[in-house]
Amino acid sequence: MNSAIDLLKAIRSGRLQDVLAVLDSGAPVELLDGRGDPGLPLGVACFMGFPDIVRELVRRGAKVNTADNSQPTSPVSMAIRGKRKEVLKVLIELGAEIPSGLNTGLSEQEILVARWRGQHYGAAMPKAADAAPDAPVYEEIEMVRCYGTDTSVLDADLIRAAREMEKK
After folding, report:
1. CA-CA to 94 of 20 to 30 Å: which in 62, 69, 86, 145?
2. Any bridge partners for residue 32, and if so which?
3. 18: left (phi over 0), alpha (psi -120 to 50) or beta
4. Domains, the chain, with CATH or none
5. Positions of the ANK repeats (predicted)?
6. Which residues 6+ apart lie within 8 Å of 30 measured at CB?
7. Which of 153, 79, 159 shows the shortest CA–CA distance to 113?
8. C-alpha–C-alpha distance, residues 117 and 82, integer Å
9. Terminal alpha carbon distance of the chain
């Protein structure tokens, strides 16, 4: 049994539970690609469009940024090549740097909001058990359908908060 191959198969399947099982069995989170650059598992997850797997790989030590994020094998470039906007947003939330002039397919507003989300809800945010006792508790609400709901006010609040963050 080859743990590297098992990890890549699990990532390609898109099943987070399989990826967790392979990683828990000791598979390395960083594998070299055909050119000898690290980050093959994260690159595959980005290209194929699995944001939950991307988050887990980064949580376990995969590097979001490479020496040059405009290189074709960087996680950012892989998400762009795969036309995976949601994965690209997740990468930005997790701290990925977007090289100037790189066409991401995201609007400036989407990038700004992703950065804001990363600072406020990102990987560095403490879990509820680790949080300070006086820290506010936020409930995440998932809405499957928003028919008839005007979300422009919420979007405006997020954008305003993100712009204020950029000024600091």
Report:
1. 145
2. 38
3. alpha
4. 3-167 (1.25.40.20)
5. 37-69
6. 38, 39, 40, 41, 61, 62, 63
7. 159
8. 23
9. 51
Residue 136 corresponds to which tokens in the numbers above? 């506010």
- Contact by Cβ (8 Å): 48, 12: yes
Phi/psi at 38 (5° precision) = -75, 160
Q: What's the rounded Cα separation, in Å, for the pair 158 and 162? A: 6
